[in-house]
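B., you asked whether I could sanity-check this one before it goes into the benchmark set. Here's the sequence:
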Amino acid sequence: QVQLVESGGGSVQPGGSLRLSCETSGFIFSSYGMSWYRRAAGKERVPVAYIDSSGGSSNYADFVEGRFTISRDNAKKTVYLQMNSLKPEDTAVYYCYAPRLGNWGRGTQVTVSS
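And here's what the prediction gave me:
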């Protein structure tokens, strides 16, 4: 079955960096675009970034543009989210999502605090 497993979350000070990973299985990873979403406490889950199946095209939410980078390794069936210049408002649970399949990971917590 389809599985998406996030890792790499943690606690970091403002201005710091984290790299999230989403390891996948159960589908032909190289054929699917992938997304990262996040949900802050008390708020709705919102899209953060998207990358197409080849990795040649990506787009970002305005609030992370220029700070976050989505990438993928089709050989490893893994999608990444490099997060730089983190702000307290980036604190959230970050989820990996396969839009065409409708499958979600369980999420990984990112906390940005001094």
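One thing to flag: The chain has a mean pLDDT of 97. Otherwise nothing jumped out at me.
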